[in-house]
Structures are given as structure tokens and as C-alpha cells.
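Example 3.2
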Amino acid sequence: MIYNLSENSSIVRNFITEMRDKRVQQDRARFRFNMRRLGQVMAYEISKQMPYLSKKVETPLATTDGFYLSEQPVLATILRAGLALHEGLQLIFDQADCAYISAYRKHIEDGTFDIELNYVSSPEIAGRQLIISDPMLATGSSLVKTLRKLYEQGMPEQTYIVTAIASEPGINYVLSEIDDVVIYTGAIDPALNDKAYILPGLGDAGDLAYGPKIQE
């Protein structure tokens, strides 16, 4: 199932437009702020799908019915680009456990690249709600490799993917490789360029948020 939050009129369109705009992108703090706010909206949308338990609550005047999450989710993100989006999710699911994965494109002389995983730190995910954030779902290779690595320790009850912008080829690849995932995205773009970046996209989300990196 795919939820494209730009399909309907909402403030998400404003966030995505600012993140795409190369003039606004010069303000690194603004870029991170919009990414965090997008994460908060995504967390709210996902919360509608999660299980709750009822609980009696004592107010200063009376007893009433209340509700709380039956179990806290696990919030996973791919370093470093996913940090701002992850922080937005944390602001809503503020009691969640967290997982961190280092995944990056290792470029090869022929112009192709492999996905390298060199750090995984995760709590128990078996039978739980897993929410994994990565701002750009381009080819989908990083997400697929990351999820397979996480699944080695046990299968979650449900996996949610949160991304700012997804490409149609990336979505198709993820859905062909991973069963039972729900994708929440701020926008869906049609294609990738010859370097496997999303078109029109917004550029390199990690560099825009945290500064240019040395290419390996």
C-alpha cells in the first residue's frame, strides 16, 4: 500500500516545494526543519494505522475513557541522510525504540555502485511495528538491503517506509523484493537520471542537510 501525501492538498506540499527549491536549499537549517516537520506529519498519518488500548483516566473533575498505544514502535533510519526525518518521527513517537543503520553507495570505476552496510544497531523487532525512514527512495536498493539485514533477527508485525520523495522505479523494486510493506511518501517522481538520482527530485538530501561529503 502506498500513501502519497502530495495527492491531496495539505501543508506537506509546502514542505516538499521548499525542500526542492535550490534557493531555499541554501539555508541548511531550513532544509532540516522541513524534513523534521515532514517526519512529524508522517508519524501522525502512520499512527492512524496502529493498535491502541483503552484506559480509564482520572481528570481533576471526573473519570473518562482514554487510549494509548498498545506497544511502542521501533524507529529505524539510514545514516546520515535519514537523521532529520527520523527526528520528526521521534517527536511524535517519543517513547519508541530506535535502530540505526549505516548504508551508502560505494561507487565503482565503471560508474555503477554497490550498497555497503557497515553498521547496524537495533533493538528487538520481531512481532513489532517497524518504521524505517530514508528521505530519498531512489533505486530502492539501500532500503531492500537494510530491511533484509534487520529481518535476520526476526520479522516485524508490520513495516512502514517513510520517505520524502520516492521514484516510481524505486517503489516498484521495493514492492517486488519485500512483502507486506506500507510506503508513506511526500511525493512520487517518475524517473532516475544516469547517476540513479531521482528526477526532478531535490538533489542529495544528506549533503543538503549536513554538508557535502567526500565521494568514495
